[in-house]
């Protein structure tokens, strides 16, 4: 499992930002920036849509005021779903990271098997990344939502 001090691997993902989608290497997306990245089991799912993403949408400017350059939301969904979810959630200040094949999630060692819910998904977590190196990692226990919230991450900055 990825740990504090580890470098983000060079794995291709799709980034959805400003209404545009681009293929990019995760390490390049995060290079030279202070990033708060949070991950969740799936777009349009109950806790993810009611609490997790909305917390970051509402508090985005507070993160930027504390020196964060990029807020990224990662999910094992395709770029089309992530774009639709961003539009539905008014998440224009959040970069949506579509990890459709779960390659980055698996490289992190943070995948889970949700069975018939959707197969391989990401565990819920949040991390602070500085110039592609993990400086903080808050991993949720299964079916929990506490340590990866926007409020919890703001307290670290």
Automatic annotation (TrEMBL):
SUPFAM superfamilies referenced in this protein's UniProt entry, alphabetically: Thioredoxin-like
Q: Which residues form the active site?
A: 48 (cysteine sulfenic acid (-soh) intermediate)
Domain of life assignment:
Bacteria
A GO biological process held by the record: hydrogen peroxide catabolic process
Pfam families to which the protein is assigned, alphabetical = Redoxin (PF08534)
Enzyme Commission designation: 1.11.1.27
For molecular function, the Gene Ontology terms on record are: thioredoxin peroxidase activity
Catalytic activity as recorded in UniProt:
a hydroperoxide + 2 glutathione = an alcohol + glutathione disulfide + H2O
Report domain Thioredoxin positions: 2-157
Q: Would you indicate the residue range of the signal peptide?
A: none
Q: What class of enzyme is it?
A: oxidoreductase
PROSITE patterns with a match to the protein in the record = THIOREDOXIN_2
Instruction: Cite the Gene3D superfamilies for this sequence.
Output: Glutaredoxin
User: Which controlled-vocabulary keywords does the entry list?
Assistant: Antioxidant, Oxidoreductase, Peroxidase, Redox-active center
Q: Give a Gene Ontology cellular component term annotated to this protein.
A: cytoplasm
Keyword DNA repair tagged: no
According to its UniProt entry, what is the function of this protein? Answer: Thiol-specific peroxidase that catalyzes the reduction of hydrogen peroxide and organic hydroperoxides to water and alcohols, respectively. Plays a role in cell protection against oxidative stress by detoxifying peroxides.
Q: Which family does it belong to?
A: Belongs to the peroxiredoxin family. Prx5 subfamily.
- Please state what the protein is called: Glutathione-dependent peroxiredoxin
The source organism is: Amphritea japonica ATCC BAA-1530
């Amino acid at each position: 499992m990825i740990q504090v001090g580890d470098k983000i691997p060079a794995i291709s993902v799709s980034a959805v930002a400003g209404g545009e989608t681009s293929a990019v290497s995760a390490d390049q997306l995060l290079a030279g920036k202070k990033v708060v990245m949070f991950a969740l089991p799936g777009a349009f799912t109950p806790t993810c849509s009611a609490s997790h993403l909305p917390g970051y949408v509402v508090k985005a400017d507070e993160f930027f005021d504390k020196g964060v350059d990029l807020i990224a939301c990662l999910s094992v969904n395709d770029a089309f779903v992530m774009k639709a979810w961003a539009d539905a959630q008014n998440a224009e200040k959040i970069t949506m990271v579509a990890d459709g094949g779960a390659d980055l999630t698996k490289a992190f060692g943070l995948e889970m098997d949700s069975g018939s819910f959707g197969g391989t998904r990401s565990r819920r977590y949040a991390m602070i990344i500085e110039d592609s190196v993990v400086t903080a990692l808050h991993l949720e226990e299964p079916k929990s939502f506490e340590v990866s919230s926007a409020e919890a991450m703001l307290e670290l900055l």
